[in-house]
Each structure stands twice: as structure tokens, then as C-alpha cells.
């Protein structure tokens, strides 16, 4: 069995503590403070770019699930310990945090694209931008009656979901670590829970990334779960892969990934 490494252990402890905080801090304040909000929402704070990586549970106070946390922490232990043993703690945490930043950057960029596209439709239909933002902030139950004449159901979902939604989880960080693992161990055999067939990492991990990309572009999750930030997974994986590619290819020993 893979021995858990120090940095991975500390990251798991931090994530568990933050999850416990969501359970015991009243009125969803933990999500208000630390989950990643859309930058145009007044609830957004700069530190959320980092703190959302350690949050789990989805933000639904009526149904906070531990599954999100358990899945990510299992993946962190399984792939992270192997990567940290090779790279060391400093380079491991660099990939982990960088992948998290790459994840939030790509997801928010995509959300901005969706949001601004629908915003333009509303403005062209004669709605005032200030009025639109005010409605998004305070009139969640009336937006469809005011805008349904110019927006379809998907567009309504996009503008309201992007403005009021939150982003939580270490999935982007984990995807970066998985990408690094795959580049270090391309022939390692991995299996999906629902498809118990050994698949080499060099096929398995790109396949997972491709499924995330397809799910994000189509708006329909191939994985069968809702509210997944698919572009965050893709962004995290791309960031982790790029860092590993640089460390592996550079001619300078001080930057080599295996030194």
C-alpha cells in the first residue's frame, strides 16, 4: 500500500478541517467567506481564488454531502503520494496550487463568456445593465417572468447560475496531480470504479480530461452528476501537464522534474 507523504497528509487534514467548518459555522457563512464566487457578485473576495481549493460539499446547507470530499481526498492520496515521493514537497505543492489556479482561471473565463453573451442579449432587448444586476442579486424568483420573452431556459440558467453560483473543491488541483502522475508513470495501469478494466495512465488520464471537455462544451455531464465545474478539471490538468512538460524537457538540471 502506498505510504501517505507529509504534504499530502497535511493537505487532507486542511480539507477535512474546512469541511467540518461548513457543518458547524451557521447560515452557510463558510461558503460565503471561502467558496469561489463569480467576480461580478458582491460576495466575491480575492482570497477565494485560493480558499475554494480547500472547500467541499457544494454549498447546499440542506444536503451537504461528504462524497465530494472523500472522492478528492482518496485521489489525492492515491496519486499525490506517488508524485510527491519523486518531486519532493516543494515542487509537489507548486503543482498542486498552480493546478488549482489554472482550474479556476479557465472555469471563470468560460463562465464570463457565457454570462456576457446572455447579458448582451438582455441589453439588446432594452434591459438596463444596472437593473439586470439588481435583479440577479435580489429577485431570483422573478427573473424568468421578466426575461423569458428574450431568453430560453438554458440562457436563463447560464446567467443566473454563473452570477449566483459558487465553485468549491480540490478537483482542479487533483487533475493537475493526475496529469503529472500520468507523465511520470505513463504505463501504470488504472481502473474506473464502474469500468473495472486496467487502462494505462497514458490513455486513462487523457480520456478523463477529454470526457470533462466534452461535458463542459455540451452542458451535459457524461459522469452522471450535476454541478460539476468541468472546465476547472480541464484547466487543472493542462496546468499540471505543462509544468511537468517544462520540468522534464528543460536542459537546466536545477529545473529538471526528476532531480
From TrEMBL:
<feature type="transmembrane region" description="Helical">
    <location>
        <begin position="228"/>
        <end position="247"/>
    </location>
</feature>
<dbReference type="GO" id="GO:0004252">
    <property type="term" value="F:serine-type endopeptidase activity"/>
</dbReference>
<dbReference type="InterPro" id="IPR050925">
    <property type="entry name" value="Rhomboid_protease_S54"/>
</dbReference>
<feature type="transmembrane region" description="Helical">
    <location>
        <begin position="61"/>
        <end position="80"/>
    </location>
</feature>
<dbReference type="Pfam" id="PF01694">
    <property type="entry name" value="Rhomboid"/>
</dbReference>
<keyword id="KW-0472">Membrane</keyword>
<feature type="transmembrane region" description="Helical">
    <location>
        <begin position="92"/>
        <end position="113"/>
    </location>
</feature>
<feature type="domain" description="Peptidase S54 rhomboid">
    <location>
        <begin position="164"/>
        <end position="246"/>
    </location>
</feature>
<keyword id="KW-0378">Hydrolase</keyword>
<dbReference type="InterPro" id="IPR035952">
    <property type="entry name" value="Rhomboid-like_sf"/>
</dbReference>
<keyword id="KW-0812">Transmembrane</keyword>
<feature type="domain" description="Peptidase S54 rhomboid">
    <location>
        <begin position="45"/>
        <end position="111"/>
    </location>
</feature>
<dbReference type="GO" id="GO:0016020">
    <property type="term" value="C:membrane"/>
</dbReference>
<keyword id="KW-0645">Protease</keyword>
<dbReference type="GO" id="GO:0006508">
    <property type="term" value="P:proteolysis"/>
</dbReference>
<dbReference type="InterPro" id="IPR022764">
    <property type="entry name" value="Peptidase_S54_rhomboid_dom"/>
</dbReference>
<keyword id="KW-1133">Transmembrane helix</keyword>
<protein>
    <submittedName>
        <fullName>Rhomboid family intramembrane serine protease</fullName>
    </submittedName>
</protein>
<feature type="transmembrane region" description="Helical">
    <location>
        <begin position="159"/>
        <end position="182"/>
    </location>
</feature>
<feature type="transmembrane region" description="Helical">
    <location>
        <begin position="12"/>
        <end position="31"/>
    </location>
</feature>
Amino acid at each position: 500500500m502506498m505510504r501517505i507523504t507529509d504534504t499530502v497528509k497535511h493537505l487532507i487534514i486542511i480539507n477535512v478541517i474546512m469541511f467540518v467548518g461548513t457543518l458547524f459555522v451557521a447560515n452557510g457563512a463558510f461558503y460565503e467567506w471561502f467558496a469561489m464566487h463569480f467576480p461580478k457578485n458582491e460576495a466575491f473576495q480575492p482570497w477565494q481564488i485560493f480558499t475554494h481549493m480547500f472547500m467541499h460539499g457544494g454549498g447546499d446547507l440542506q444536503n451537504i454531502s461528504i462524497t465530494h470530499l472523500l472522492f478528492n481526498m482518496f485521489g489525492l492520496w492515491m496519486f499525490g503520494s506517488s508524485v510527491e515521493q519523486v518531486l519532493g514537497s516543494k515542487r509537489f505543492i507548486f503543482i498542486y496550487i498552480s493546478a488549482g489556479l489554472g482550474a479556476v482561471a479557465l472555469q471563470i473565463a468560460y463562465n464570463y463568456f457565457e454570462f456576457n453573451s446572455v447579458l448582451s442579449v438582455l441589453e439588446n432587448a432594452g434591459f438596463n445593465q444596472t437593473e439586470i444586476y439588481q435583479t440577479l442579486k435580489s429577485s431570483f424568483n422573478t427573473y424568468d417572468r421578466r426575461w423569458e420573452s428574450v431568453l430560453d431556459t438554458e440562457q436563463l440558467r447560464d446567467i443566473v447560475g454563473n452570477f449566483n453560483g459558487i465553485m468549491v473543491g480540490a478537483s482542479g488541483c487533483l487533475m493537475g496531480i493526475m496529469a503529472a502522475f500520468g507523465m511520470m508513470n505513463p504505463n501504470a495501469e488504472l481502473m474506473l470504479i464502474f469500468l473495472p478494466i486496467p487502462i494505462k495512465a497514458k490513455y486513462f488520464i487523457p480520456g478523463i480530461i477529454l470526457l470533462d471537455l466534452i461535458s463542459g462544451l455540451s452542458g451535459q455531464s457524461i459522469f452522471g452528476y450535476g454541478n460539476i465545474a468541468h472546465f476547472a478539471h480541464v484547466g487543472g490538468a493542462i496546468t499540471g501537464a505543462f509544468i511537468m512538460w517544462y520540468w522534464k524537457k528543460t536542459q537546466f538540471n536545477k529545473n529538471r522534474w526528476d532531480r
